[in-house]
Write a structure and sequence with these properties.
Shape: elongated
Order of helices and strands: HHHHHHHHHH
Number of helices: 10
Radius of gyration: 19 Å
Helix content: over 70%
Number of strands: 0
Length: 171
């Protein structure tokens, strides 16, 4: 909070001190990255943040969303799901950035990690359907049999839509 009240030079020093004192403070890292005007420096700060707090979904998402290169984003997502295997939106984004064969592998891994997440099952069925592997009726039966919906799934699907838009932007 104090950083926002000061000029950028002072704020940068305050955030550097805060990061040194509280290296696991996600919001401090996020603010430090946002303060950087140079994209390369912002990326370096985010990478350092991930080194300190590799289980922070917020920091991974900031790093991935700032990436313009689809292959680099895919590499980051692969690392991110290793650290946060329960993050459905990361799995779905990784699958969307992958070709068909790799997406199948990604979604199968996601199903092992999140067997009751409806979003994984739906994404797998959409992938198969998009490649002419199954009919709509089979997709509906598989989703009903293999997944149990919840309100959290609805929120995850909304987040997945945001990641899909990111994927479309990246190419």
């Amino acid at each position: 909070e104090a950083a926002r009240l000061h000029p950028p030079e002072v704020a940068a020093r305050l955030l550097a001190l805060a990061v040194a004192k509280c290296p696991e403070a996600v919001n401090v890292w996020s603010a430090a990255a946002a303060l950087e005007s140079d994209p390369a420096r912002r990326r370096i700060v985010r990478q350092r943040a991930i080194e300190q707090v590799p289980t922070s979904l917020k920091l991974w998402k900031e790093l991935i969303e700032a990436e313009d290169d689809p292959q680099a984003a895919k590499n980051l997502l692969t690392r991110a799901v290793g650290w946060i295997p329960e993050a459905l939106e990361l799995w779905l984004a990784l699958a969307r950035l992958s070709d068909y064969a790799e997406a199948k592998k990604v979604l199968n891994s996601a199903r092992k990690e999140l067997p009751f997440e409806r979003g994984v099952w739906i994404a797998a069925m959409e992938l198969e359907e998009s490649h002419g592997k199954q009919q709509v009726e089979q997709v509906e039966v598989t989703v009903q049999d293999g997944a149990q919906g919840s309100e959290a799934d609805i929120a995850a699907e909304a987040e997945a839509a945001r990641w899909k838009a990111l994927h479309e932007r990246l190419g």
